[in-house]
Give the backbone structure.
Amino acid sequence: MCVLCEGGTEDDLFFGQMLKIASKGFTVMAILGEPTWAYTIGLMQSFDHPELVVSNLPECCVSSILVPLTDRIRGGELFDESSPPVALKWGTIRFGPVHHQQWDKGRLDSWLRYYRALGGEPPFERALQVVWADEGGRFPDDPDFVGDQELYDTAPRHNVNTGMNRRDRRRAKYGHGKLRP
């Protein structure tokens, strides 16, 4: 459900995120534009673990990846760029860096807006990209990789919130992607 699409306010959105973080230690923000991406909010605050970012997957697959990983983090496991690949029911993943400019160029804008709304000092900006393997077990750095996966280990060329029109900009800025019928 998209709070803003359903007529809610930004405060309603932040309140819902705060409740999820208070109960589970994190929430997930999914942006269903082109390309799609999703990321966690709350892992740094709750578990001193970098936030997780995943790209170019449908909403159902994002949950199949982030839920088991966050369960492991909640259980005390820590991941970083040097962690070995992890086999999940969905497939194999590994962790990659997220360039610091991704924060400045809007990739994790709802994370920033959430912590600014709370006031005080936000957690340190750290994130890991969850990089998924194709059906053959190949990752994007393999020349035979089959798939379309945007990697965030470099600085973006532009602010990702500057879409072609107002609707696209709002979808990226506020993290909502459900369109009204």
About this structure: The beta strands are 27-31, 37-41, 51-55, 86-87, 92-97, 127-132. The CA atoms of residues 97 and 119 lie 27 Å apart. Helices lie at 10-24, 43-47, 59-74, 101-104, 109-118, 166-174. The mean pLDDT is 83.
